[in-house]
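# nightly structure sweep
# worker-07 picked up a monomer target from the shared queue
# config: single-sequence mode, recycle default, output format = structure tokens
# input follows
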Amino acid sequence: MKKIFLILTSCLFLSSCATIMRENNQSIPIKSNLDQVNIQIFDKNNTLIFSGKTPTTVNLKTSKSGYFNPQKYKVVASKAGYPSITTEIDWHVSGWYYIGNLVIGGLIGYLIIDPITGDMYYLDEEVNLNMP
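# output follows
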């Protein structure tokens, strides 16, 4: 019984709140004011990671591996007869990172676990493309 208690207590103190509450990926719905708009999504290294048509939902990583390395995406939308548009899916820091680590994770959560896992970040919740 003492071993189980020790393991559970260690997990609590060696984890951080954003890592407990969030994952390093997020589903993002992409919609447009027109049907079947062609979209391409590029990561911050300008690598094409998705190509398809609206409406769709894509599963994107909130951070790239590395320390304090949030991900940002560029969405390029096009349709015959309309000018192409470009928009971004940007990252934000989760409130769980600030508040949760104050209560549970402490400095280990603030400075090590959440920044390395990337679970402290979240992306814009949806993309609405307005083709002119």
